[in-house]
Design a protein that fits this description.
- The chain is α/β, with parallel strands linked by helices.
- The chain has two domains: about 160 residues, Rossmann fold, CATH 3.40.50.1370; about 160 residues, Aspartate/ornithine carbamoyltransferase (Rossmann fold, 3-Layer(aba) Sandwich).
- About 35% of the residues lie in helices and about 15% in strands.
- It is built from twelve helices and nine strands.
- A five-stranded parallel β-sheet has the order 7-6-5-8-9. The chain has a four-stranded parallel β-sheet with strand order 2-1-3-4, with helices on both faces.
- Strand 8, helix 10 and strand 9 form a beta-alpha-beta unit.
- Helix 2 packs across helix 7.
- It is globular and about 55 Å long.
- The two termini are about 20 Å apart.
- The N terminus is likely disordered.
- It binds phosphoric acid mono(formamide)ester.
- Phosphoric acid mono(formamide)ester binds next to helix 4.
């Protein structure tokens, strides 16, 4: 990795960053400078030993409220908080909570805010994180709300792009798969609008990137193109961001059946790609990337998930008002 790029980022960015007690609901809540500052902080955290990290948040409590399944986001937030010396309370199944008895999200948050210093929440409903933030006097971090936003995934995606490509500007980036329901691609596309990238959106007609995002990106002067075939863009891109077709979000199961195998990246398909290509994926994968691709130098999705720790630690520290 090129350490200098992080040093060069940090110089103009260290002043006037106020994250203490702030919510993070949408990636649009952050300016370009704030995003770059958080990535720089993540780099600093990564350089710390585990012993140095432990103790930074002793006595602090994070509430982890997962109303929808998760492996990476939930466990990496918990691991991040505990690695900083804090503690985690919460649930990963709403059926074990009083929501099952009919308690509203608003009332749930009014209770949890009294038990924790920061609240991380995933919810199946678009806009649930914003509602929670309106209810809470404690900071809310959106760990994914429906098909809407997943801002901390985007921060770790940007960190992964920066680590592997050495820059965020001027890249060719393809997003492939379920661009209609994929909250990770919605957040990432908006974040990349701060950087002068060419975006290639590859999806079947029924799963195209929603018009509101296309309009916003074009309004910001981004070069955006839409494609149906992954092969049309494979040889051009620096980052191939694969996504799963999200069965759980289809109103009609018959529609899912039509597109569930639409993309499959194989090792053979990677013969004419750029040498610096990195394949990313927010995971979980279903069948869209052959496991044989894992052994190629292009595969980066498991390291990408690992980048969730320094990025989420940096964010929690900033929201808790701890300066590195
Ligand atoms: N990337 C991501 O959000 O994965 P999980 O659903 O497992 O948290």
């Amino acid at each position: 990795m090129n350490n200098n790029l992080f040093i060069s980022l940090s110089v103009p960015l260290i002043f006037n960053m106020h994250f203490k007690d702030r919510d993070l609901i949408s990636i649009n809540d952050l300016s370009k400078e704030e995003i770059l500052f958080l990535l720089d902080q993540a780099k600093k955290v990564e350089a710390f030993s585990h012993a140095k990290r432990f103790g930074l948040l002793q006595g602090k409590i994070m509430a982890s409220l997962f109303f929808e399944p998760s492996t990476r986001t939930r466990l990496s937030f918990s691991s991040s908080m505990e690695g900083l010396g804090g503690r985690v309370i919460g649930f990963d199944d709403e059926k074990t909570t009083s929501v099952k008895k009919g308690e509203s999200l608003f009332d749930t948050i009014k209770m949890v805010e009294q038990y924790a210093d920061v609240i991380v929440m995933r919810h199946p409903r678009d806009g649930a994180a914003r509602l929670a933030a309106e209810a809470s006097s404690k900071p809310i971090i959106n760990a994914g709300d429906g098909a809407n936003q997943h801002p901390t995934q985007t921060l770790l995606d940007l960190f992964s792009i920066l680590k592997t490509q050495g820059k965020l500007e001027g890249l060719n980036i393809a997003m492939v798969g379920d661009l209609k329901y994929g909250r990770t691609v919605h957040s990432l596309a908006m974040a990349l609008s701060h950087f002068d990238c060419n975006l290639f959106f590859v999806a079947p007609p029924m799963l195209r990137m929603p018009k509101q995002y296309l309009d916003e990106l074009r309004r910001k002067g981004m070069t955006v193109s839409e494609h149906e075939k992954m092969e049309d863009v494979l040889g051009k891109v620096d980052v191939l961001y694969m996504t799963r077709i999200q069965q759980e979000r289809f109103p009609d199961p018959a529609d899912y059946e039509k597109v569930k195998h639409v993309y499959r990246l194989t090792r053979k398909g990677l013969t004419n790609v750029k040498p610096n290509l990195k394949i990313m994926h927010p995971l979980p994968r279903i069948n869209e990337i052959s496991t044989l691709v894992d052994e190629t130098p292009y595969a980066y999705y498991f390291q990408q998930a690992g980048n969730g720790i320094p990025v989420r630690q940096a964010l929690i520290l900033q929201i808790m008002g701890v300066q590195l």
